[in-house]
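Minutes, project check-in
Item: structure for the 146-residue chain
Input as provided by the requester:
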Amino acid sequence: MATEARGQCLCGAVRVTVSNAPHEVNACHCSMCRRWTGVALVTLDVPEADIRIEGQEAVRSFASSDWAERSFCGTCGSSLWYRLTAPGAPADYYLAAGLMDQLSGVTLANEIYVDHRPQAFAFAGPARQITEAEFMAMLPPPAQEE
């Protein structure tokens, strides 16, 4: 991808511009991602400082767990991004790769929840394979209540 990349939801109500666009995508096979997208969620990991969002009024969010939320377009329903909400988690956007106008030159870096991947799914190229247990161990520890 070029240094700057643009994308939008199906209806165009939400538009994103990514500076310092990553050249890698990640795929998640957890049941929530599969239910949300109909297949694996394929994302670009974008730091908060590198994304500009237009059409915020159309964005709706759903707390899908105690530690994450998923956002979608309230007009057309397009999946937009996934964000960690746990204290200490990075303020990154895991932006749905399908929003982007162009994805040429992008490679698959990580496949997450590979132990939940349906047998019919296969992705091209070598990628780091991460199980559910390995992914959960990467998350920040839960906040301690006082």
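Outcome recorded: The domain at 4-138 is CATH 2.170.150.70 (Metal Binding Protein, Guanine Nucleotide Exchange Factor; Chain A).
No further action items on this chain.
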